Structures are given as structure tokens and as C-alpha cells.
């Protein structure tokens, strides 16, 4: 003898099983997409950090020599691609990963140093800036104390832009640097 109640419910188990299968599939896809998004965020942060490191490296290289104010359009030694460009191969596969361009450094401030502001006894850099003969430097009203020295303090703004060649991302780092230059160079370097 057949039970009529069991005969009517035989299709309901299939429907519940299909609904559960769809829910488990949606849960799995959501978990996969969340994991993929996290990996993309981490990858973007790594690309950003690599770009910042490349920009800082180029800025440090430029600031470590006087080329950036002597020849601002050619501030980097042995550039790649064009002048003021540096290429980085981060993983050693022979393919350029990041190209960093150093824009022409800009002199934003100049202040001529007065002779009486120099410490010629303690600083070799200040001795090179002093005017007059050492015999009249300490004398009140002497030529060495009455005017400008032979040096000026300058403030420069340098900008390095790094572009990741694979991710097509870009990072811009701006750095200020103070540099003492001879006053003879001020007219040519700080325009």
C-alpha cells in the first residue's frame, strides 16, 4: 500500500536541494571575490610603495650632487630613455618595471648671506663664503662685515614622477631641498 502523503512531497526535496546548492554557490563566489579584492588592494599598495621608493631614490641621487642647479635639465648621471629619467628593473628579468622622470628643479627662494652671519672659525663652508682679508674680518666696520658674502642660501623644489609600466599607475613625490650656492651662480641657476 502506498502512502499518499509521501507521494505528494517527492518533488519538494529536489527543490530544497537546488535552493541550497544555489546558496552555497553564491557564498563560494562571494568569498572568492572578496579574496580577489583583497589581493588587488595589496597589489596596488605594493605598486604605490615601489613608485614612491623609485621617486625618492631619484630625488636622493639628484640632491647628492650639484648637477641639479648647475645643469637642471640634465641633473641625473647616465639617464635612461631621456635626460632626467631613471629606469628600474625591480625583479631582475631585464624588463623595465618603473620609469621615473625628474622634472626640472625650480629655485623657489634665494637669500644672500651677510658676511656677519658667517662663522669663519668653525665652518669650512663659511670660510669659503667670506669676503675680504682675514685681517679685517673681526674689525668693526671692516670690509668683510659690511656687506654680502660670496654665498647665498637657496631653496629648491624637485618633483619626481614614477610610472609603473605594467600596472600603468603613477606616483608623484615633491621634495624641497636647501642648498648653499656661490652668488655668482645665483643669476644663472635661480631664474
Could you explain the architecture of this structure?
By secondary structure, the protein is α+β, with helices and mostly antiparallel strands. It is built from 5 helices and 5 strands, in the order αααβββαββα. Strands 1, 2, 3, 4 and 5 form a 5-stranded antiparallel beta sheet that branches. The mean pLDDT is 80.
Radius of gyration: 33 Å
Assembly type: single chain
Total number of strands = 5
Largest sheet: 5 strands, antiparallel
What percent of the residues sit in helical stretches (DSSP H or I)? 25-40%
Distance N terminus to C terminus?
106 Å
What's the overall average pLDDT, rounded? 80
Structural class: alpha+beta
Name the helix and strand elements from N-terminus to C-terminus, one letter apiece: HHHEEEHEEH
Give unreliable regions as ranges: none
In what range is the share of β-strand residues? 25-35%
How many helices in DSSP terms?
5
Q: Given the C-alpha coordinates, what overall shape results?
A: rod-shaped
Amino acid at each position: 500500500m502506498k502512502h499518499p502523503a509521501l507521494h505528494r512531497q517527492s518533488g519538494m526535496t529536489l527543490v530544497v536541494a537546488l535552493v541550497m546548492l544555489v546558496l552555497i554557490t553564491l557564498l563560494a563566489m562571494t568569498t572568492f571575490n572578496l579574496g580577489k579584492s583583497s589581493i588587488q588592494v595589496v597589489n596596488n599598495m605594493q605598486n604605490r610603495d615601489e613608485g614612491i621608493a623609485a621617486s625618492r631614490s631619484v630625488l636622493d641621487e639628484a640632491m647628492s650632487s650639484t648637477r641639479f642647479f648647475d645643469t637642471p635639465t640634465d641633473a641625473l648621471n647616465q639617464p635612461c630613455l631621456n635626460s632626467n629619467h631613471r629606469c628600474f628593473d625591480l625583479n631582475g628579468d631585464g624588463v623595465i618595471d618603473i620609469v621615473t622622470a625628474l622634472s626640472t628643479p625650480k629655485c623657489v627662494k634665494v637669500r644672500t648671506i651677510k658676511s656677519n652671519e658667517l662663522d669663519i672659525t668653525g665652518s669650512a663652508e663659511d670660510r669659503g663664503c667670506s669676503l675680504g682679508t682675514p685681517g679685517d674680518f673681526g674689525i668693526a666696520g671692516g670690509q668683510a662685515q659690511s656687506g654680502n658674502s660670496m654665498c647665498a642660501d637657496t631653496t629648491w623644489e624637485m618633483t619626481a614622477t614614477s610610472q609603473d609600466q605594467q600596472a600603468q599607475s603613477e606616483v608623484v613625490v615633491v621634495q624641497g631641498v636647501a642648498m648653499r650656492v656661490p652668488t655668482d651662480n645665483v643669476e644663472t641657476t635661480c631664474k
